[in-house]
TrEMBL record:
Gene3D superfamilies per record: Hypothetical protein (2.30.130.30)
Name recorded for this polypeptide: ASCH domain-containing protein
Native source species: marine sediment metagenome
Amino acid sequence: MAWAIFNGKDVENRTWSTKVRGRVKIQASKKFDREHYEFIWLNENRLGCQLPPRSEFVHGAIIGEVDIIDCVDKHDSPWFTGPYGFVLANPVLYAEPIPCKGRLGFFAPAL
């Protein structure tokens, strides 16, 4: 859930590792992610964030950018569930989302 990156999430979980480091754009998926929404809702206190109503989420757009500073298989963050975690830093949420058709993995968006 892209929203979480701009609200305290410091590790992005994946089933695959990456050597990518540096600034990347964050794409909010076209569809609502019920599974991650419910995970955050059930763990708001532990994660240190509070979810907005579903209607406030942006979909199908680039909403900001963040630095990937590492890829780990263990981390103390309450956000880490593994098996791999992209360690994130310096998130910047854009004032206006940029509509963009997303894809899986890393890609160069046609803006």
